[in-house]
C-alpha cells in the first residue's frame, strides 16, 4: 500500500466518521427530550461520544492530508479537489477550536454538515495527483492557500452559528409580516444548501450510472495574434443535457427517461470554456434540489426551518450571536493575512504585480470588504443579534462564491483545473 | 479646547482634496496610451544617420518636418518613397525636411535600397526600435507631420500618394 | 439649542458626550432607563460633535460617520463586483476593446464597454470611492482616537451607580466585611489575572489589555499608508512595467534604462513520467515543470547615449530567472513571462566550393544581421551586395524582402577572382536548402552570370548552422513604492492582531453600605469576561453562575 492508497482510505474514513458524528450530535441535541433520561447526563455522554467521533474524523482527515502530501511532494491544495478537501478539514479545525472555547454541542450539529458538504463537493472533481505547474511552485502556495482557507473556515463556523441564531430567534409560530418574511428567508437559506446537496447527488448518481452525452461545438477563438481561429471542440456531459452548448451539434446522447436530446441551447453570450456544460450542471443542481426539497416537505409536512427550530430551543441566543461574531473576529485577521497580504506578496513575486484586478483577487477583496462592513456594523447596537446573523449567513455565500463561483463562472489566473 | 482644531481640520481636508484630485485625475486622464497625438511635441530622437552622424530633432528647429517610418520589406513604404523624394525636392528650399526613419534594418540593406531608388533625403537608423516605441508606430508606414512650431500637426498611417503629401506639407508651411 | 451638559458630579462635558467623562453617569436620559449603556469610545464626544457646525464641520462630520464609512465600503464592494462580470481591458493586451466586447458577448458586452465597466477599477467613480474611503479612514480615526485616548487615560475609579448597573456584566450582592478591606483583598486575585488595579477607598477599577483598543486605529493608519503608497506608485520614474523579447544568446537593450540583458539560455523542462502519479500519466497530459532564463544583466558605463559608438557594458548581475524567482538588481526586476520556441537562423558558415574540382576555399561566418561586407576566400573575393531576410519576388519580378525575420534569407554577392570577369559576377545564395529549391537558386544564378556551374557556396554540416533556439519574454519592472506598500500592509496586520486577538477588559466595583456593585465591560468576548468575573468572585467567596452575570437589560 503506498501513500496515495492510504490517503484515499483516510479520506473515505474521515468522510464516514464525520457523517457518523453528525448523527451523534443530532442524538446528543435532540435526545435530551427523550423519555426516561436525565437530559444533562445524556448531553454529557453523547456530547463526548460525538466530539470524540468528529475528532477521530479530523485525525483521519489529517492523515489523508499528510500522506497525500508525502506522495505528491507538495501540499495538497493544487487543484479544486485538494483545495475543497483542505477547506473542509480547516472547517473541522475551526469548529474544534470554537467548540473547545464554548463547549456548545449544538454547534457540531450545524458545523459538521457544512464540512461534510464541502468534502462531498470536493469529491466531484478529478482526484488524480497533478504535478505542479511552475507558477505554483512556491513556498507561498503553502502559506497563502492554507491561511486563506483557515480564515474562510472560521467564516463558515460564523455562518453555522448565525444560522442557528436565526433558527433560534425567528418566531415560527407567528404570522405577522416580518416573521413571515424572516421565515421565508431562513427557508431559502436551507433550500440553497439543499441545492448543493442536489448537485452532489445528481453528479454521483449519473457518474455511478456511467452516463455520457457528447456534443461537438464550433467555437471561435480570438487568440493573442488577433487571428480568428475556429476550433471544433467536443463537450462531454456526464449529466443528461437539458441545455446544449451554444452553436453545437449533438453527437451521441444516452437517453434518460426518454430524453434523448437537449431541450434548448445555451445563449450566445455563454462562451466560456465548457460554459454549456456548466450551465447544464447548474440547472440539474437546481432541479434535483427542488425535487429533494419537495420530497422532504412531503414527508415532513412542514417547513424545514420549523423542523430545525426546536433543536436549538435550549440554547441562549446571545451565546450564538457571540460565537458567530467571535468566529468571524478570529477568522478576519487570518483571512486578511492569507487571502490578501500573502497573496499580494506571492503575486508580486510570480507576476511582478501585487494586485492585478484578477477576478479571484477582486472577490477576495469583496469578501474582505464585506466582513469589514460587518465588523463596522456590529459597532452599532442595532446590528447585533438578528441582523448580524443574517450578515454572517450571507457572508458565507460571498466566501463560497469567491472559492467556487469565480472558478466556475469567471475564469482568471486562478482557474484551477476543475470540471463541472 | 477646540480652538486649535479648525486649522488642523482645514489642513487635512486640503490634503485630501489635493491627493484625491490627483488620484482621480490620473485615473481619468493618465490612462492614455502614451502615444503622441496631434498637438503634442514629437518625442525626442537621437539616432545614427545613414551619413554616419548622430541626429536629433533639435537640428531641425524652426523647420517643418515630415517624419516617415519605413522599412525595405514593407511594400507600401517602398511604394511611397518616390513621392516622398519628389516632395523633398519640391519643398526643401522652403524649410521643409523629410526624415526617413528606417526601422531596425542594417546599414547595407538601407544603403542599397536608397541608392537604388535615388533617395537623398536624410535617413536615420532606428536599430533598437526606440523611436518606433516612443512614437507608438504600429502599421507601416506611418508619417508624422511636424509644423514649424515643433508640434505634431497630423499623423497618417498607410501609404501616401503625391497629392495627399503635397496637401499635408502645404498645410505645414502655410497653416 | 444648547443642551445642558453639566453632570451632577460637577463635571462640564462637551456636546455629544454620552456618558459623563468623569463619573460615567448616562447624560442623555433621565435616569429611569435600565437599558444597557452605549460604551462606544467610552461615551466620549467625538471631536467633530459641536454645537453650531459650519460647512467645514459638515464635510468633516460626513466623513467622520461610521455609517457613511459602511456605505462607502458597500458601494465599493458592489462596484468591484461589476468589474468581474467580464474581463477587464487591463487584463488583456492586444485586442481593440471597442469591438472585442461586442464580438465576444454581443449586445450585453457592448453595453458593458459603453458604460465604462470594461475598466471599472480605473474609472473616475471607483477611484473617487477609494479616495472617499481614504478620507473617511483619516477623519474617522482622528475624530475618535483622541477623545478615546483622553477618556481612557483619565478614568475616574469611582463610577456612578447607574454606570455600573447598566453594564452588560453586572453583579450586585451583599458583602459581610468592611468595604475598603474587601476592596484591598480583591487586588491580589485581579492582579494575578493580569489586571492593572486602581483603588479609591471602597471603589476599584481593574483594567487589562487596553492597547487592543488602538488596534482599529492602527489598521486605519496602515490602510492609509498602503493607499498613499499605491497612489504614489504611479509617479513618473517610480514605475516601469514593460514586456520585451530576449532572443537566446543575444544582448538586448532594455528601453528607457541604461541596462542590457543577455539571455544566455532559456530552458523549458517538463515533468517526466516517473514524476507523475499513475492516473495522471493515463490522462496523457504534459505538464511543464520549469521555465528558466539564464540571464546576465549589464549596465552601460560609456557611450550609452551615442548611437554611432558601441556602448561599453559591465556585468552587474547574473541570475536564473524562473517563475516565482525574478532577477532583482537594485529594485529593477525581470520576471519570466512567456517564451517562444521557434528557432531563428542566426548565422551560417558556408565554404566556397569549386564545382569542377571539388576544392574547398575557406569557411566564413555569414551573420543574418549586420554581416561582414567582404570575404577573402582563397583566390576569390566575395563582396556582399545585398541581402533579403524574407526573400520573395514582387509583381515586377524584382527581389524583395517581405519581413525583417530571417524566414527565407538570401544573400547577393559579387564574386571576383581567377577566370572571372574583371567587374565580377553576381551570385545569389540561399542558406536554407528548402529555399534553394523553392526559389530556384541555380536558375537565378544562371541569369545573373552562370556562376553556379563554376562555384558554389555550401554548408558542410549542421555544426555550421547557428540558430537562436528560442526567445524568452520577460516582464521588466521597477516599482519604487513597493516597500511602502508592504509597510502599510504590515501595519494593518499588526493592528488586526492587536484589535482582534486581545480584548480590553475592565471591571469596576464599589461597595456602598455592605452592598457590592460590580460592572464589567469588554470590547469583545463577553463569554470570556463573564467566566473571568465569575472566577474572580469565587476567589472572593462570592458564588455566582457565569450566566447570572449577564445583565437582562434590554436586548435589541
From TrEMBL, chain A:
Gene Ontology terms, MF aspect: heme binding
InterPro entries on file = Cyt_c_assembly, Cyt_c_biogenesis_CcsA/CcmC
Topologically, how does it sit relative to the membrane?
Answer: Multi-pass membrane protein
Question: What range does the record give for the signal peptide?
Answer: none
Q: Which cell locations does it reside in?
A: Membrane
This protein's record includes keyword Translocase: no
Q: Taxonomically, which superkingdom?
A: Bacteria
Q: Which UniProt keywords apply?
A: Cytochrome c-type biogenesis, Membrane, Transmembrane, Transmembrane helix
Name of the protein in its database record: C-type cytochrome biogenesis protein CcsB
From TrEMBL, chain B:
Q: Which SUPFAM superfamilies does the record cross-reference, listed alphabetically?
A: Thioredoxin-like
Give UniProt keywords alphabetically: Disulfide bond
GO molecular function per UniProt: antioxidant activity; oxidoreductase activity
Query: Does the record carry Disulfide bond as a key word?
Result: yes
Alphabetized Pfam families for the sequence: AhpC-TSA (PF00578)
Q: Which InterPro entries match?
A: AhpC/TSA (IPR000866), Thioredoxin-like_sf (IPR036249), Thioredoxin_CS (IPR017937), Thioredoxin_domain (IPR013766), Thioredoxin_ResA/DsbE_sf (IPR050553)
Gene3D superfamilies per the UniProt record, alphabetical = Glutaredoxin (3.40.30.10)
Q: Specify the superkingdom.
A: Bacteria
Q: Which residue numbers delimit the Thioredoxin domain?
A: 36-174
What is the designated name of this protein?
Redoxin domain-containing protein
Name its species.
Paenibacillus faecis
From TrEMBL, chain C:
Using the UniProt record, give the first listed, main subcellular location. membrane
Q: Name one Pfam family in it.
A: ResB
Give compartment(s): Membrane
Keywords annotated in UniProt = Cytochrome c-type biogenesis, Membrane, Transmembrane, Transmembrane helix
List the membrane topology term(s). Answer: Multi-pass membrane protein
Report the transmembrane regions from the record.
68-86, 124-146, 217-235, 484-502
What is the name listed in the Swiss-Prot or TrEMBL entry for this protein? Cytochrome c biogenesis protein ResB
Q: Which organism is it from?
A: Paenibacillus faecis
Amino acid at each position: 500500500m503506498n501513500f496515495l492508497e492510504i490517503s484515499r482510505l483516510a479520506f473515505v474514513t474521515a468522510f464516514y466518521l464525520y457523517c457518523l458524528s453528525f448523527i451523534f450530535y443530532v442524538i446528543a441535541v435532540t435526545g435530551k427530550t427523550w423519555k426516561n433520561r436525565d437530559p444533562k447526563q445524556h448531553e454529557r455522554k453523547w456530547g463526548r461520544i460525538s466530539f470524540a467521533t468528529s475528532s477521530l474524523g479530523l485525525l483521519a482527515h489529517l492523515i489523508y492530508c499528510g500522506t497525500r502530501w508525502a506522495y505528491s511532494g507538495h501540499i495538497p491544495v493544487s487543484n479544486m479537489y485538494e483545495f475543497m478537501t483542505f477547506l473542509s478539514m480547516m472547517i473541522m479545525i475551526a469548529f474544534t477550536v470554537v467548540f473547545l472555547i464554548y463547549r456548545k454541542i449544538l454547534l457540531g450539529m450545524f458545523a459538521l454538515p457544512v464540512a461534510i458538504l464541502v468534502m462531498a463537493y470536493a469529491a466531484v472533481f478529478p482526484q488524480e495527483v497533478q504535478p505542479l505547474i511552475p507558477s505554483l511552485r512556491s513556498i507561498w502556495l503553502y502559506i497563502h492557500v492554507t491561511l486563506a482557507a483557515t480564515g474562510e473556515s472560521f467564516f463558515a463556523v460564523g455562518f453555522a452559528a448565525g444560522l442557528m441564531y436565526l433558527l433560534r430567534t425567528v418566531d415560527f409560530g407567528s404570522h405577522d409580516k416580518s416573521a413571515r418574511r424572516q421565515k421565508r428567508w431562513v427557508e431559502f437559506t436551507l433550500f440553497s444548501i439543499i441545492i448543493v446537496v442536489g448537485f452532489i447527488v445528481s453528479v454521483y448518481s449519473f457518474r455511478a450510472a456511467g452516463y455520457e452525452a457528447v456534443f461537438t461545438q464550433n467555437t471561435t477563438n480570438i487568440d493573442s495574434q488577433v487571428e480568428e481561429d475556429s476550433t471544433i471542440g467536443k463537450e462531454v456531459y456526464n449529466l443528461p443535457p437539458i441545455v446544449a452548448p451554444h452553436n453545437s451539434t449533438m453527437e451521441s446522447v444516452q437517453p434518460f427517461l426518454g430524453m434523448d436530446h437537449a431541450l434548448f441551447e445555451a445563449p450566445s453570450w455563454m462562451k466560456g470554456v465548457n460554459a454549456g456544460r456548466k450551465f447544464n450542471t447548474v440547472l440539474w443542481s437546481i432541479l434535483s434540489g427542488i425535487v429533494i426539497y419537495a420530497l422532504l416537505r412531503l414527508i415532513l409536512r412542514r417547513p424545514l426551518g420549523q423542523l430545525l427550530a426546536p433543536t436549538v430551543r435550549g440554547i441562549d441566543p446571545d451565546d450564538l450571536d457571540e460565537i458567530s461574531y467571535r468566529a468571524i473576529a478570529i477568522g478576519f485577521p487570518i483571512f486578511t493575512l492569507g487571502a490578501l497580504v500573502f497573496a499580494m506578496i506571492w503575486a508580486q513575486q510570480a507576476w511582478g504585480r501585487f494586485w492585478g484586478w484578477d477576478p479571484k483577487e477582486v472577490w477576495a477583496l469583496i469578501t474582505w470588504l464585506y466582513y469589514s462592513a460587518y465588523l463596522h456594523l456590529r459597532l452599532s447596537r442595532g446590528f447585533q443579534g438578528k441582523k448580524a446573523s443574517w450578515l454572517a449567513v450571507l457572508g458565507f455565500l460571498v466566501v463560497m462564491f469567491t472559492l467556487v463561483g469565480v472558478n466556475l463562472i469567471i475564469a482568471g489566473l486562478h482557474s484551477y483545473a476543475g470540471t463541472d | 479646547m477646540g480652538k486649535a482644531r479648525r486649522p488642523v481640520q482645514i489642513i487635512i481636508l486640503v490634503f485630501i482634496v489635493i491627493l484625491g484630485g490627483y488620484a482621480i485625475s490620473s485615473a481619468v486622464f493618465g490612462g492614455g496610451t502614451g502615444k503622441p497625438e496631434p498637438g503634442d511635441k514629437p518625442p525626442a530622437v537621437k539616432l545614427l544617420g545613414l551619413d554616419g552622424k548622430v541626429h536629433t530633432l533639435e537640428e531641425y528647429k524652426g523647420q517643418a518636418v515630415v517624419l516617415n517610418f519605413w522599412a525595405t520589406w514593407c511594400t507600401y513604404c517602398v511604394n511611397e518613397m518616390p513621392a516622398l523624394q519628389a516632395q523633398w525636392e519640391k519643398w526643401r528650399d522652403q524649410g521643409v525636411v523629410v526624415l526617413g526613419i528606417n526601422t531596425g534594418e542594417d546599414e547595407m540593406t538601407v544603403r542599397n535600397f536608397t541608392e537604388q531608388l535615388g533617395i537623398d533625403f536624410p535617413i536615420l537608423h532606428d536599430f533598437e526600435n526606440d523611436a518606433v516605441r516612443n512614437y507608438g508606430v504600429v502599421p507601416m508606414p506611418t508619417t508624422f507631420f511636424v509644423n514649424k512650431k515643433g508640434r505634431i500637426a497630423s499623423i497618417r498611417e498607410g501609404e501616401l500618394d503625391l497629392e495627399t503629401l503635397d496637401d499635408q506639407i502645404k498645410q505645414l508651411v502655410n497653416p | 439649542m444648547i443642551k445642558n451638559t453639566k453632570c451632577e458630579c460637577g463635571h462640564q462635558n462637551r456636546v455629544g458626550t454620552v456618558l459623563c467623562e468623569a463619573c460615567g453617569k448616562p447624560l442623555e436620559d433621565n435616569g429611569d432607563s435600565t437599558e444597557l449603556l452605549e460604551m462606544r469610545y467610552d461615551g466620549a464626544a467625538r471631536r467633530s460633535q459641536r454645537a453650531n457646525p459650519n460647512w467645514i464641520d459638515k464635510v468633516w462630520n460626513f466623513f467622520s460617520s461610521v455609517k457613511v464609512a459602511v456605505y462607502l465600503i458597500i458601494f465599493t464592494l458592489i462596484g468591484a463586483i461589476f468589474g468581474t462580470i467580464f474581463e477587464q481591458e487591463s487584463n488583456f493586451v492586444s485586442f481593440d476593446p471597442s469591438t472585442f466586447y461586442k464580438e465576444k458577448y454581443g449586445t450585453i458586452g457592448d453595453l458593458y464597454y459603453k458604460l465604462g465597466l470594461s475598466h471599472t477599477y480605473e474609472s473616475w467613480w471607483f477611484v473617487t470611492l477609494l479616495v472617499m474611503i481614504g478620507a473617511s479612514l483619516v477623519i474617522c480615526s482622528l475624530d475618535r482616537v483622541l477623545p478615546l485616548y483622553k477618556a481612557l487615560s483619565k478614568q475616574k475609579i469611582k463610577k456612578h451607580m447607574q454606570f455600573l448597573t447598566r453594564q452588560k456584566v453586572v453583579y450586585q450582592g451583599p458583602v459581610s466585611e468592611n468595604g475598603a478591606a474587601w476592596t484591598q483583598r480583591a487586588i491580589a486575585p485581579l492582579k494575578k489575572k493580569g489586571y492593572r488595579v486602581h483603588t479609591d477607598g471602597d471603589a476599584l477599577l481593574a483594567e487589562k489589555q487596553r492597547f487592543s483598543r488602538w488596534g482599529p486605529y492602527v489598521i486605519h493608519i496602515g490602510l492609509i499608508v498602503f493607499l498613499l503608497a499605491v497612489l504614489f506608485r504611479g509617479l513618473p520614474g517610480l514605475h516601469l512595467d514593460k514586456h520585451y523579447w530576449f532572443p537566446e544568446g543575444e544582448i538586448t537593450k532594455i528601453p528607457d534604462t541604461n541596462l542590457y540583458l543577455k539571455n544566455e539560455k532559456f530552458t523549458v523542462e517538463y515533468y517526466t513520467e516517473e514524476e507523475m502519479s499513475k492516473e495522471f500519466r493515463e490522462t496523457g497530459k504534459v505538464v511543464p515543470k520549469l521555465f528558466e532564463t539564464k540571464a546576465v544583466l549589464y549596465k552601460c558605463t560609456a557611450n550609452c547615449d551615442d548611437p554611432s559608438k558601441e556602448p561599453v557594458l559591465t556585468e552587474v548581475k547574473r541570475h536564473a530567472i524562473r517563475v516565482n524567482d525574478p532577477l532583482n538588481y537594485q529594485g529593477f526586476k525581470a520576471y519570466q513571462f512567456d517564451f517562444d520556441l521557434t528557432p531563428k537562423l542566426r548565422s551560417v558558415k558556408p565554404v566556397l566550393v569549386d564545382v569542377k574540382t571539388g576544392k574547398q576555399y575557406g569557411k566564413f561566418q555569414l551573420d543574418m544581421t549586420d554581416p561582414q561586407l567582404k570575404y577573402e576566400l582563397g583566390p576569390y573575393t566575395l563582396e556582399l551586395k545585398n541581402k533579403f531576410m524574407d526573400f520573395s519576388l514582387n509583381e515586377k519580378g524584382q527581389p524583395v524582402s517581405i519581413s525583417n525575420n530571417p524566414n527565407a534569407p538570401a544573400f547577393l554577392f559579387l564574386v571576383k577572382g581567377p577566370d572571372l570577369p574583371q567587374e565580377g559576377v553576381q551570385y545569389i545564395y540561399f542558406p536554407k536548402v528548402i529555399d534553394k529549391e523553392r526559389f530556384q537558386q541555380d536558375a537565378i544564378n544562371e541569369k545573373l552570370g552562370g556562376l553556379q556551374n563554376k562555384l558554389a557556396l555550401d554548408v558542410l554540416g549542421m555544426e555550421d548552422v547557428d540558430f537562436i533556439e528560442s526567445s524568452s519574454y520577460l516582464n521588466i519592472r521597477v516599482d519604487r513604492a513597493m516597500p511602502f506598500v508592504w509597510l502599510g500592509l504590515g501595519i494593518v496586520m499588526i493592528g488586526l492582531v492587536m484589535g482582534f486577538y486581545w480584548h480590553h477588559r475592565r471591571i469596576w466595583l464599589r461597595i456602598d453600605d455592605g452592598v457590592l456593585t460590580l460592572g464589567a465591560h469588554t470590547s469583545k468576548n463577553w463569554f470570556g469576561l463573564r467566566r473571568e468575573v465569575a472566577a474572580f468572585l469565587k476567589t472572593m467567596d462570592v458564588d455566582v453562575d457565569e450566566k447570572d452575570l449577564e445583565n437582562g437589560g434590554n436586548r435589541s
